Amino acid sequence: MAGSNPNAKPMDLTLKVWRQKNKDAAGQLVTYPVKGISPDMSFLEMMDVLNENLLRSGEDPIAFDHDCREGICGACSLHINGRPHGPERGTTTCQLHMRHFKDGDTITIEPWRAAAFPVHKDLVVDRSAFDRIQQAGGYVSVNTGGVPDANEIPIPKTIADKAFDAATCIQCGACVAACKNASAILFVSAKVSQLALLPQGKVERQTRVENMVAQMEIEGFGACSNTGACAAECPVGISLENINMLRREYISAKATSENF
Amino acid sequence: MILDSNIPEGPLAEKWDKHKFNVKLVNPANKRKYDIIVVGTGLAGASAAATFGELGYNVKAFCFQDSPRRAHSIAAQGGINAAKNYQNDGDSVFRLFYDTVKGGDYRAREANVYRLAQVSVDIIDQCVAQGVPFAREYGGLLANRSFGGAQVSRTFYARGQTGQQLLLGAYSALNRQIAYGKVKMYPRTEMLDLVMVDGKARGIVVRNLITGKVESHSAHAVVLATGGYGNVFFLSTNAMGSNATAAWRAHRRGALFANPCFTQIHPTCIPVSGDYQSKLTLMSESLRNDGRVWVPKTVETAQRLRKGEITVNDIKEEDRDYYLERKYPAFGNLVPRDVASRNAKLMCDEGRGVGASGLAVFLDFADAIKREGQPAIAAKYGNLFDMYAKITDENPYEKPMRIYPAVHYTMGGLWVDYNLMTTIPGLYATGECNFSDHGANRLGASALMQGLADGYFVVPYTIGDYLAKMPNERISTEHPAFKEAEQNVMAITNKLLSIQGTRTVDDFHKALGLIMWDYCGMARNAEGLRFAKAEIRKLRDEFWRDVKVTGVNEELNQTLEKAHRVADFLELGELMVDDALHREESCGGHFREEYQTPENEALRDDENFAYVAAWEFTGTGNQPMLHKEDLKFENVKLTQRSYK
Ligand SMILES: Cc1cc2nc3c(=O)[nH]c(=O)nc-3n(C[C@H](O)[C@H](O)[C@H](O)COP(=O)(O)OP(=O)(O)OC[C@H]3O[C@@H](n4cnc5c(N)ncnc54)[C@H](O)[C@@H]3O)c2cc1C
Ligand code: SF4
Ligand code: FES
């Protein structure tokens, strides 16, 4: 009885789901009816119901990524009715509830679409490009041990809060999926800003931004054309300000490195 | 087998320093001749893998998610403890040690807990240096909050996303070592067996979750940092993929499993809403700093509320029972988790629960909002309130939250000695995967602390001692021990695929979860446990006769992944029941109805049960063999825990 609307009736829906056997196979949308869906179910619980039905009838269940089901791990990644993570703003797929749909609705479910995110199977894509971008510079170079006392680095609360806002990116890839150029700039800017804002990250800010941007290009993400679609679809509200900050960081890094 | 905990001699406060001095070192130039496997890259694994890499070892790290940054640790909300005493409120290493031993109801090893409290302060320094954005005061210094079971403010936090920020810190350190080539990362790869050569852990067998390929990896030592086993219960606050397979398969190879029945049921979770429910969502314990827990004073009021004849706001102040404040005036809403959970159950058993099912109590923020204003409360807990609203469609700023206990954490795990080594030489266990520090009940904000303590500051020292004493020769994965383990994995897989029965894996998992929750959950008794044991055995037999796993091994096959995990849960569940049955006392999260005080508090039996129960695997369906590690308390006095 979690929902505020205990009288809400179960719904019957038609799902059109992208099925693709593996990365080399051709894929297609396949239609599945689902019945008796409670409005209090989460979207992924609705998918569970469908998968249990498929299994019982001996069909291959639909593969999709998910883990925490709390909007924090960034694993879930469904393109629902043309929008990454579906119709609700500021909500990951796993936190989307069926009360946002109506009886009789047809729902189209696809994987993220981007050259840099090839499909492994059905709705599961390969996002390892994001890890490689982080490996290119998304860290402060400190070893374990031998660091100063935590309170020896006072940080104004306003700066700490801003860095925190940038640090909440869940690395889901919705920004890429939302962008017509499949640009990863919002994702990259979140890390660059977080570390550029904090005193700990300032030492390496120039090489960091250069290396991360270079890796982003190597991975085949598109260029940013300022449509803002990324921030509009970002489930945790990473702001476009971070992109501005990345640009400033990048320009100043390039200006300095060309002087050498 | 004699269990030697290898606790160093000497006074408690000097043990760790002395031990660090006494352990053998691998000289810097030789470190690159040693290979270490780290399974799991949550807080405990990522921190260890990164630190091993920094030290110069060759590391291979594994996780089943598509990225190390998605480990279950990411979901931790409330915070991490450290004895910094930044608040000048009387905290100290000894107090954190004392609170942890007491909170664990005197079933943890003193020396390990003391070391944990000692290194806690280094963790905060390390994380800040990495750029972890902890909450700060206006003066720019770090902020703290209080957590259950403590009367000081020692919890560091990053809004309600502390685990996320700590894991991103460890992930960044790991990434740096991956970039340097010191760590090779294998995401979407699941360990399915441990390989032993001459009685030592020398490698693992894994399945590539994309291609299904079964492969071996050889090393000089193996560290398991694979998390807890709360998902035995099907419904828990753990991530969907959290599982016990790596630990269980090591157990089958000889590693003893300690205190399996010590599970933590967290008091503040969003109640179950329907049978389609796939997991439960935690509302962080930090909410108990400002939220007040209550139920209606009378059964009659509760009934009218459940029927919808009145609303919560119709219930007058004098008709509410703030039962934690009433029963435990000293700690109030901040009593430890086991106490809070059990009391919620008691209220619901009395018929005073709320919500349609009657299985919920209120967590009310009205007073805090009145006192501090909505923006202040939103700043502290905004993301938790949003999460609650998304799931329940109710606004917790206007109406109290409804909460109920849910399975959350497992104190039990692989038995380890002071060096975090299991009973298999060369096999280490860190983080939630081991049993070591929390006794029969873990205090809030102490799991993150333990995971990072183990990974950054403990195992990097102790593993060196082991490696320094062994030759650096590598063993080829062509060795018969690897081939045998690969065949073992393929045999299980083939069996699972060949049954082609009628019931789904989830079906079995849910059935197991229900047995565990009803008979080995918040309250247990001998009769129920015996019944549960028989039921689990029946269910396990049926699983191996009638489970339905579609597809093939050589593909991304999520049903097959789950089937492996549930097969192990069906064995582990029985061991948990055995352990709960044998422990004829109540302590912490283990509440045996036969053993309680007149006020319904847990009644320990220190005379007969002040030991760690470490179980040896003797074959599926056979009675496991019990080994005891006696616990000696030299620095705290064993008393009846009181939070009154
Ligand atoms: C919702 C929630 C909130 C919490 N909040 C707090 C809090 O505020 N404070 C606190 O101290 N604690 C908290 N906890 C507890 C804490 O988060 C966990 O105990 C801790 O994060 C466990 O860390 P770990 O590194 O041991 O394991 P995990 O983070 O669970 O990592 C396990 C790793 O092992 C890998 N793995 C598992 N099996 C295999 C296999 N067979 N093969 C390969 N890889 C494998 C996984 O991929 C993963 O990388 C919370 C827990 C939950 C559920
Ligand atoms: S910026 Fe937002 S949308 Fe992009 S990866 Fe991060 S959280 Fe996801
Ligand atoms: S499953 Fe973790 S964010 Fe959705």
TrEMBL record, chain B:
Active site: 337
Ranges of residues in domain FAD-dependent oxidoreductase 2 FAD-binding: 35-448
Gene Ontology cellular-component terms listed: plasma membrane
Positions of the Fumarate reductase/succinate dehydrogenase flavoprotein-like C-terminal domain: 509-643
Family classification: Belongs to the FAD-dependent oxidoreductase 2 family. FRD/SDH subfamily.
NCBIfam families xref list: PRK07573.1 (NF005749), sdhA_Bsu (TIGR01811)
Protein name per UniProt: succinate dehydrogenase
Taxonomic source organism: Pontibacter arcticus
